[in-house]
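Dear colleagues,

As part of the handover before I leave the project, I'm documenting each prediction I ran so the next person doesn't have to rerun anything. This entry is a single chain, and its sequence is reproduced below.
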Amino acid sequence: CEDLYLAAGGIMNECPVSKELGVKGTPAAAEDAAVAREVALAAAAGVPLHICHVSTAGSLAVIRAAKKDGVRITCETGPHYFWFTDEALRARDADFRMNPPLGGAADKKAVLAALFDAIATDHAPHAPAEKADFLKAPNGVVGMETSLSAAYTALVETGFMELSDLVRLMSVNPAKILGVPGGSLADGSPADLCLFDPAARWTVDPEKLHGKSKNTPFKGLTLTGRVKLTVCRGRVVYEDA
């Protein structure tokens, strides 16, 4: 959610770093105001609402209050929002530019404490040439190959939550929110699953990612846990050599 008027022209979070770099920032109020508006509309209409890519402490406060008031609202975030802050933009690397933008330390802390309904990849591939210019690059990062490992490293390995909680956030709940079959190993469920080694450690090398796009903010970081096998509709579609 974003207020397009408030967000217009911003390429990162409005903060001391944006001022130092001399670039236009997007204020946190752009997300906060839009979330508050959608919550008010959902409450008035009595319909369910799902908010994607929540990233600010202010919007989380609105969502938390709405849940308490009985609004049928769910939300998600991406791993980069509980890994990084706007300080990562100091290097003028467009691989850390996404929408909504990375927030400050208080936003990251709020995201970690939020206990979201779901965690999403926010997968947005772009060609290397598109990401080469910090000022003109499109927003977005790739996330499919790193999402589970990044979330496991930040949330489970640190003791913040159990692996079963992470499975709920990345598999069970998304299926429920979307109203689609899946997210379960029960008889008759779709044979969509992955085998995951929680002890494996690996360093993210963009050149070894399987997609054509390499715009990952996790490049060079060592993560714990790795997918070893992926089954889609009963067919093995990926196997780690």
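The radius of gyration is 18 Å. The chain has eight helices and eight strands.

All the best with the project,
I.
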